Amino acid sequence: MNINNLGLLNSLAAIINEGVYDSDYSTTEYILHNIDNIQNITVNMIMDEAYVSRSAIRRFCNRLGYENFSVLKHSLSDIIFPSNIHLREFENIGSFRKKVTEGLSKMVTEINEIITDDIIDSLASLINEHEGVSMISANNISANLLKFQQELFYAKKIIKIVDNYFDRDEMDVSSRETNLIIVVSVSGIFAEAINDIIREVDGKKILITGSHGEEYKKVYDQIIYISKSDISDDKMGLYGKYGITYFFDLLSEHYIFTYKQ
After folding, report:
1. pTM score, two decimals?
2. pLDDT, tens digit, for every residue of 160-210?
3. Parallel, antiparallel, or unpaired for β 180-185 and 222-225?
4. What is the pLDDT of residues 79-98, one digit of tens each?
5. 141 and 244: one domain?
6. Which of 29, 54, 80 is the endpoint of a domain?
7. Alpha helix (H) ranges present in 51-194?
8. Same domain, 62 and 143
9. What b/e string do you get for 213-240 counting C-beta neighbours within 10 Å, with b at 16 or more?
10. Are residues 255 and 191 in the same domain?
11. What is each CA distance from 143 to 15, 150, 233, in whole angstroms?
């Protein structure tokens, strides 16, 4: 799996949000308008209907981290969408509101049971005692980490956020920034994608996840589970959208209360 797959929607969204009406914008717009049929789209179709050149499409793919359009389009599967949206059955607002309310109540109760005060205190202590802390996630939850990063600035603690595409060289295994590595992967998909990279990086490694797979246990020094059972049955994506926010709110509050000078 190309690690950049998990940040591909963010890259496409950034091009749209920038609002620069160039060949990248035209290509992105065409891809998004045809995303439900992307596997049948060809370069020639984009050229004819988005009015861009073959070389422009190739440069577009290269800038997003893909060798060519064929590789890029095979990365645009249901799995890259946030919140397990590909697993959901959509319903009217009344039913959805009730289901979310019930799900959130159950989720918070479960997190409070499995994430004890001692776990939060231990993780906050590790972050405090390590001069270099790197937090790694896919783009779909990086906003939670950015908020956490900025809140810790208030306590004069600087941590590094790594998201989207990266490789072992970017981690700079000899630098102080790899003293403590915290990987956040709610579903476990991102953690699985970077297992080989993390295995080679020096430092204390912690995984925060809702996946209960066995493949991570030989890579990480500690695994913090945010759910009692495997997260794969979280069709509404509550843990990814709300659970991880709650977890880092707890961690931020405790860290600032305990360590702000």
Report:
1. 0.74
2. 888 654 544 555 444 444 589 999 988 888 888 888 888 888 899 999 999
3. unpaired
4. 455 555 555 677 788 888 99
5. yes
6. 80
7. 54-63, 69-75, 93-114, 117-129, 139-153, 168-171, 189-193
8. no
9. eeebeebbeebbbbbeeebeebebbbbb
10. yes
11. 18, 11, 23
